[in-house]
Amino acid sequence: MRHPNITPTKKQHLAWQALQDKETTVVVYGGAAGGGKSWLGCEWLIVMSYFFPGTRWFIGREELKRLRSTTVLTFYKVLKHHKVPTGEWTYNGQDHYFQCSNGSRIDLLDLKYLPSDPLYERYGSEEFTGGWIEEGGEVNFGAYDTLKSRIGRYMNVEYGILGKILITCNPKKNWLYTEFYKPFKSSILKAGIKFIQAYVTDNKYLDENYINSLKSITDKSKKERLLKGNWEYDDDPSTLCEYDAIVAILSNDHVNHGTKYITADIARMGSDKALIGVWSGWRLIERVSFDVSKTTEIQSAINNLRNKHAIPKYHCIADEDGVGGGVIDNTGVVGFINNSKALNDENYYNLQSQCCYKLAEQINESQIYIECELSPQEREDIKEEMEQLKSYQSDNDGKLRILPKEQIKDNIGRSPDWRDMIMMRKYFDLNAPLQPAPQKQFRGIQRPSTW
After folding, report:
1. Where would I find the beta strands (DSSP E) of 245-340?
2. Strands 274-280 and 334-336
């Protein structure tokens, strides 16, 4: 393979250019199934191993077992395609690495998240020339974050080559979406990162039967992701809201006006953002946001909105956790305690979980409308945060629980402030005061209430 005859697809060619340039350190090759991702990864590492003898590379996946049962087979197919003589590559099944006769080596890494090793310190002292993360959507962000610091450390200076990571993936609404696809879509990718969107139709070598099998998928989310390469659909079975219903909350102008309320998500200790919303029924008609705020400013904003819209204090609610307690004391509004008991003895882990589940129902029934003016970024933030309405492991009592905020922060890189502000509106539906019974009529005359 001294002079390999590489015949890539157009999208693979773009990836090869990025993998060979002098600026790019991270190449993300993602999209629909069948885009030639695994072939690209294997071919790149084999070629680099030959051209730079004695170098060290890696292939990582969430489970080593799956890496061995799929990617290793593709690796041998690539060797056969290029007519590499038998014996030039050997596989060590005990320590899991490919050894080339010229001294280059490719390690197979198990990137499974371990609670005992959340920072992936097991790879913290490794040194690699470069490497490839296969099926990146399955992999925890911490693995990528650690491995990108371990490349460029093995004979890169001697050969004058950059340390590069190739990530191949199908669309996934996790760190890949926020770190790469979303900035790519907005043309704000960081320097040194290239994103190549690949579709099944880009691969001229693909069997037509494979494409037909993708077309036959009945699950809409899976079909959008794997056939069309659509990053906006989430295939997580714990997701509570349909994606189309989430998008519709920005256009559901059929939702009726009604009783007015105010909900306020107040910045906690160590946070700097606050959101206040004014509701007419389930229409969000006005919002005030603070990137940096003092509690006195939030109190003033709540009082001003109350007076402007003639909203009584008992129709206003604010997050009582953290510094919110002071705001509640000084404004007299209702306090929302996330970890308090669910209302009406319903089977939820806490009040926050109850309101989030009920909010998801409201979204799926197309009974919420964000009417107020929003920036494009705010619209994207709302959709992204509503997609984080997901079920989480039940406790020993089997109570319904929502995905914890700490994990949401890991998924999207920030606190779900919009979700929290909107979620609290559900409190007033669950805690609605009992309405007086209608007075009976007697011979056309209203019956006195004392009867």
Report:
1. 260-265, 274-280, 283-290, 316-319, 334-336
2. unpaired
Full DSSP string of 118-153: TT-GGGTT--BSEEEESSGGGS-HHHHHHHTTTBS-
Candidate from 33-37, 126-130, 188-192 with smallest mean pLDDT: 33-37
Number of residues that make up the chain: 451
Instruction: Write phi, then psi, for 220 (nearest 5 degrees).
Output: -60, -45
Coil, strand or helix at 400: strand
- The pLDDT-based confidence of 122 (bands split at 50, 70, 90) is very high
Q: State the greatest distance between any 2 C-alpha atoms of the chain, in Å, as a whole number.
A: 104
230 φ/ψ angles, rounded to the nearest 5 degrees = -85, 115
d(CA 7, CA 12): 9
What are φ and ψ of residue 279, in 5° steps?
-115, 145
The rounded distance, in Å, linking the Cα atoms of 370 and 147 is 41
Three-state DSSP at 23 gives coil
Do residues 169 and 226 lie in contact, with contact meaning Cβ atoms separated by under 8 Å?
no
Q: 152-180, pLDDT tens digit by residue? A: 999 999 999 999 999 999 888 888 998 99
Q: How confident is the model at residue 443 (pLDDT cuts 50, 70, 90)?
A: very low
State the Cα–Cα distance between residues 13 and 265, nearest whole angstrom.
Answer: 48
Residue type, 233: Y
Helix boundaries (H) for 369-451: 376-386, 405-412, 417-423, 426-430
Phi-psi region at 413: left, alpha or beta (left = phi > 0; alpha = psi -120 to 50): left
Q: Is 425 exposed, middle or buried (0-12, 13-18, 19+ CB in 10 A)?
A: buried
Both tokens of 234, joined, read 């989430």
Q: Are 284 and 278 in contact (CB under 8 A)?
A: yes
Q: Quick check: 448 pLDDT over 50?
A: no
Ranges of H-type helices in 171-250: 175-176, 182-185, 208-215, 220-226, 243-248
The predicted model gives 92-99 an average pLDDT of 96
